[in-house]
Specification:
Order of helices and strands: EEHEEEHHHEHHEH
Helix content: 40-55%
Structural class: alpha+beta
Radius of gyration: 25 Å
Distance between the termini: 63 Å
Strand content: 5-15%
Number of helices: 7
Number of domains: 2
Largest sheet: 5 strands, mixed
Shape: elongated
Strand order of the largest sheet: 2-1-5-3-4
């Protein structure tokens, strides 16, 4: 395994390492920079061929992910399957599926007015308020939706209008946003 600034790269050539380092330096506006190989300072023309497994490179600037992907990868999807990029690529697809499961579980219509014409206008509401704080505590919609699936008792479905009215009625909106 070879890594640059902690990013794991598999089967890279010295030319690719040089290109990643030089292109990232230019992208960061660096003309002078430090490169370390296994802790020792080196110049870009001192990168060995072949690069021994377990070699780590560190730069005095951030390595640009897009440059790494463009330079190293003949097959980007294979790389994404092996590395953490997979999670960020799958997350947007997973959230709508989870939201659909929650809507099905909670009745798929507004609890106040019965609206069910378009699911895009339906919102998941905390019966007792405090949804924003709970989402922050759970750090994102992915964990938040999993929490709702596990504990559906404190939630209901409201249309956007009813949810907004409920927020005003129960004083869930700060005073500066309220209109007299």
């Amino acid at each position: 395994m070879i890594s640059i600034n902690g990013k794991r790269l598999d089967s890279v050539t010295p030319e690719q390492i040089k290109k990643i380092i030089l292109d990232s330096a230019m992208a960061n506006g660096r003309k002078l920079f430090v490169v370390r190989m296994n802790g020792e300072p080196i110049s870009s023309n001192q990168i060995p061929d072949p690069i021994p497994d377990g070699t780590t490179f560190w730069t005095s600037f951030p390595v640009v992910n897009a440059i790494v992907l463009n330079v190293v990868l003949a097959n980007p999807q294979e790389y994404r399957q092996k590395n953490s990029i997979t999670r960020t690529l799958e997350l947007p697809k997973r959230i709508p599926r989870t939201r659909e499961q929650i809507l099905d579980m909670l009745g798929r219509k507004c609890c106040r007015c019965g609206y069910d014409a378009d699911v895009r206008a339906l919102q998941i509401d905390h019966i007792n308020g405090g949804g924003r704080g709970e989402r922050k505590k759970l750090r994102g919609y992915d964990r938040y939706y999993k929490h709702i699936l596990a504990n559906p008792a404190g939630y209901q479905i409201l249309c956007a209008n009813c949810n907004c009215i409920k927020m005003y009625e129960e004083d869930e909106i700060s005073q500066r946003y309220q209109v007299e």
